[in-house]
Every structure is written in structure tokens, then in C-alpha cells.
Amino acid sequence: MVRAIVGANWGDEGKGKITDMLAKESDIIVRFQGGSNAGHTIINNYGKFALHLLPSGVFYDHTTSIIGNGVALNIPYLINEIDSIVERGVPKPHILVSDRAQILMPYHVLFDTYEEARLAGKSFGSTKSGIAPFYSDKYAKIGIQVSELFDEAVLKEKIEGICETKNVLLEHLYHKPLLDPAELFETCCQYRDMIEPYVCDVSAYLYDGIRAGKTILLEGQLGSLKDPDHGIYPMVTSSSTLAAYGAIGAGIPPYEIKDIITVVKAYSSAVGAGAFVSEIFGEEADELRRRGGDGGEFGATTGRPRRMGWFDAVATRYGCRIQGATEVAFTVLDVLGYLKEIPVCIGYEIDGEVTKDFPATIKLEKAKPVLTTLPGWNCDIRGIKKYEDLPENCKNYIEFVEKEIGVRISMVSNGPGRDDIIMR
Ligand code: GDP
């Protein structure tokens, strides 16, 4: 049985927490896209962790954690992340890395940094983790696959070719030091030795796992609105954030994904540039940011303050539809407990017309939010375990959102911890 856990919004919905929680009853957890550019915050009996590349299931000793072929694999980053959790008392996790995953190289980080600097005020707000240059190279067919690390002749020739084109850009566009093929080859040899113990034919492993009736979780990074095709292009990430891509990025048949748990946040937050219709500013935003998530809404990778907004029913309904949500986990609801009234965005006004359909970016940039206001519950709901025990106005908020998005809310998260969950 394969379940995907993905985001309906701009990321930071709390997928890490839901994955960590569901990993308890799972055998295998797979990252299928993205890289170390976004973080998942997880709080459990070992402490508080910000994971970037490891799947959020690494805290149990019965699980296997997999880096699928769709991931941007930063090898030293992965090894450091493994070491850092082991140092804090987590049992050494069982980790497998796809032999078809491609390697994020130091020059991807450099190109990301140089390009953001070149674009200056028009930059994408990249985390400078090398993700866009990595995926560009993958599709330009000059990426390096894990399996290629083990063939020195192939590797040498490939690196020569890479340096030829990259060095033209470094010299003439960025005016930066050139790449040295010998040095890159040396780096790749070090990477090979670091990754060797983990390398596996992941799709074959998962195929056997599915046939043996294992429970498999696919953990997505970011959310629907950051998908390069269906999100707010070009202010998106460079790999698909959708459950459908889970099949490709893990290497399993699409029909095996039976359940798509789509994580929806009770208010909105976003990092990076791009249209954000229900965005709020000033003191109103500062207060929500300060109270949001667990200890404030600041990027897990960069520490940047996140942009804040009210719940956006238009974006979220679309985000759920494009994920193919079969159920919704509604998160960080406890954070809204300070409000007497809660604004919610229920439509977009574009050129004088109100719509409930999420448009392509060019139109989205003209959209103004149509807001309605729901009564708040104005109390702390942390610690509540049963849906019936929630305040009336809180249940009304949940049921209003459920109706707007058209997907059953099966879980309500009312705190950052593993056990802060209400099953419905
Ligand atoms: P992810 O990338 O989707 O895994 O999300 P992040 O980990 O970046 O952001 C979620 C943040 O909210 C983290 O700091 C979590 O600890 C926290 N969090 C998750 N669920 C809840 C919740 O229900 N209530 C509160 N207060 N915080 C939560």
C-alpha cells in the first residue's frame, strides 16, 4: 500500500510532522523530488529536528528511508545529516539511495548563487542550494547519475564536457573562477566512497516491497503552488511537487498510489517571490508570523521570515485538486486561537470579475482577494484529542474549509508534536 503525503499550498504545511507520525505504522519512506532546499521541522522524543534531505521517517528503527531517483542528491549534505541525527541519539537509520539519482555538485550551488546575484532585484528568491541549475543540467542531459560514479572512464569524459560549457558561462557571463576537471573528478571519487554503502536499485526494491505488502510513504517537499507546471510559474521550484510525480521520482507504478494525504495549512505562508493573493502585511502579519508554526514562521533552511496570509480557499481547492487529494490533514489550527475573527479568502477578483478558479500566473498577478470573516474560538485548543471536544466555532471553521475545498478533512493537527492530532 502506497500513500503520498504532499502539500496543497506553498510548502511548510507541516508535511514533516504528518510523515513522522504516519511513519510509525509504515515500512518504507521515500523522498521523490527536490533536494536540501526546503526543510521539515519534526518534534519527537529525540528532540526538535530540521531535516532537509532525509525523509521524515528516519526516527524509527523499523523503517527504511529512501532517496529516490527524482531527488537532487547532495552527497556531503546527506552524510552530514545522517551524522547529525545519530549524534543526537537517534538510532542509525537504514538508508538507501537510488543508483539513478543524480548528484548535486558544488558548481550547482555556485551557479545558483551567481545567477541570483546577477538577477539582483529580479531574482527568484532561491535558497541557493543549487536546485535550479541541478535540474537544468538533468534535463540538458549533462547531470551525473550515482551509478556513473563507479565508472571512472565515463566519469572523466563527462566532467570534461561539463567544464567546457560551464567555463564559458563562468568566464564571460559571471566573471568568476573556472572549474578544474581534475578537481571535480577528485570530488566525485570522494562522493563515490561516501555514498557506496547506500546505493540500491530503488525501483526494484520498492517493487518487491509492494508485492510483499509493505506500507510505503512518499514524502513530498513544498506544495502544489510551487509545482513547475501547475504552480505559480516562474516563481516555482524546479521539480514536480505533485503526488503523481511520486510514481516517477520513486520508480513505482502510478496506480499503486492509493491514498494522497494532502496537507493544508489553516492559514497561508510562503517563501520567495510570486503572487500571493491573501497576503497580509504590517502588524497583522507580524503577529501571525510570531505565533505561527512552532516558534514562528521563519524558513527552516534560510531563517528568512515567511510571507503571511489568511487561508486561501481558491488556492487550496486548486492545490488539492491538482494533487488528487483523497483526504486532507488540516494543520497548525491551534495557531489561530488568538483571533476573535478570522478572515478567509473565498474568491479572487480579476478585472472586476469574481472567480473561484485559480488562474495561470499572468492573471493571478491581477487578482485581489474576496474575503469573508468567520468567528474565532479565541482559546487554546492544544491538548484536545477528540473532534467533539473542539470549540463550536473551531469546528465551524474546519467544516467551512472542508466545504470550500471539497475534500474530507480526516486529520486535524493542533500542535507541533507527534501526538497533537485529532483523527476524525
Ligand atoms: P513541511 O515542510 O511541510 O514539513 O513544514 P515545516 O516543517 O516547514 O513547517 C511546519 C512548522 O509548523 C514546523 O515548525 C512544525 O513544527 C510546525 N507544526 C506542524 N504542525 C503543527 C501544528 O499543528 N501546530 C503548530 N503550532 N505547529 C505545527
Please tell me about this protein's structure.
The chain is an alpha/beta fold and 424 residues long. It is built from 12 helices and 21 strands. Helix content is 33%, strand content 23%. A hairpin with a 7-residue loop joins strand 20 (409-413) and strand 21 (421-423). The model has no long low-confidence stretch (mean pLDDT 95).
Which SSEs are present, and which pair or pack?
Layout: E1 2-7, H1 15-23, E2 28-31, E3 40-44, E4 47-51, E5 64-67, E6 72-73, H2 75-87, E7 94-98, E8 102-103, H3 106-119, H4 131-139, H5 152-174, H6 181-195, E9 199-200, H7 202-211, E10 216-223, H8 243-250, E11 257-265, E12 268-270, E13 279-280, H9 282-291, E14 307-309, E15 311-312, H10 313-323, E16 327-331, E17 341-350, E18 353-355, H11 361-364, E19 368-375, H12 392-405, E20 409-413, E21 421-423
Parallel strand pairs: 1-10, 1-11, 2-5, 2-10, 5-7, 6-8, 7-9, 11-16, 15-17, 16-20
Antiparallel strand pairs: 3-4, 12-14, 13-14, 17-18, 17-19, 20-21
Helix pairs in contact: 3-4, 5-6
Bound molecules: guanosine-5'-diphosphate.
Q: Number of helical segments? A: 12
Bound molecules: guanosine-5'-diphosphate
Query: Termini, distance in Å?
Result: 21 Å
The percentage helix is 25-40%
Strand residue percentage: 15-25%
The low-confidence parts are: none
Strand order of the biggest β-sheet: 9-7-5-2-10-1-11-16-20-21
Q: Quick one: how many beta strands?
A: 21
Q: Mean pLDDT across all residues, rounded? A: 95
Radius of gyration: 22 Å
Largest sheet: 10 strands, mixed
What structural class do the secondary elements suggest? alpha/beta
Question: What overall geometry do the principal axes of the alpha carbons give?
Answer: globular
